[in-house]
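Lecture notes, unit on binding sites. The following record was shown on slide 14. It pairs a sequence with glutamic acid.
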Amino acid sequence: MRGRFAPTPSGLMHIGNARTALLAWLQTRSAGGTFLLRMEDVDTTRSRPELAEQAIADLRWLGLDWDEGPDIGGDRSPYTQSERIDRYETALAVLERKGRLYDCYCSRAELTAVASAPHGLGSEGPAYPGTCRALMPEQRAARSRNKQPSLRFAIDSQAVRFDDAVAGPQAFLPGAGGDFVVKRADGMMSYQLAVVVDDAAMGVTDVLRGADLLDSTPRQLQLYEALDLHPPRFAHVPLLYGTDGKRLAKRHGALSLAALRASGATPEKVVGWLAAVSGLTDSIEPVRASELVGHFSVSLVRSDDVQVTDDMLSQLVD
Ligand code: GLU
């Protein structure tokens, strides 16, 4: 069993990320598996090295550890996506050989003009209607004179089904989400491609992550299949919401681990709070992450959205 946590170092780690990290770590440690940390800085415009360092410090402060990672190395190095671009290029070459890629010249304006199609995946915006998949050679030539293309992956038109360890059985309609970008016009590799290549190369057997990525999973499963790679098992845990209905991550800046630390919170207090709101414990009591390992099971994790009340929040920040 190999599990992982894969943060994007584009902002301070907040309690939502910390919770995902804690649950993924507990899943792996309770199964006696190998846990790895991977920095997902493939989006170099948003990622910052100092935030990657901060994330590592925050995770260690929480009481989590890993067997392989950017700071300690391991058999499947490197564990930082910006150092793995050649692997993504190799995967693109495989997809290209199989005829699964095409150049896309659609502008941002053209894409946003696409009405939200019924098969769109909620978190991924409207489904791409396949405009450039059907271009005639002369149309393609004409468009390529004015614009650098992005590369799109041509999905196949089968329904995608999988069993999620937390969210339950999932079924996505044929063509759900449409063909998606695997390499942007500016050369940046997409998250979808990088995460599949890396989870496969790093031998990850179990992916536990936030439910905001549930909609990405059918895309990733299509990539696994096209690349002849074995997909991991998935567990998507519900996100934390404030009483305003907004994701806690997005709004409540004071809930970064750095801010909580600065205000004097202990790791036991934060872990105890996260365990309680996740359904692992009955009440909010300080606890060390390692003390939760023996009792953990993914089936204990609440599968409904977690509404964090002001009263609950006050038990974290007071
Ligand atoms: N890097 C992604 C994020 O921070 C997580 C990717 C994943 O777990 O698949 O949201």
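Take-home: The chain is about 35% helix and 15% strand.
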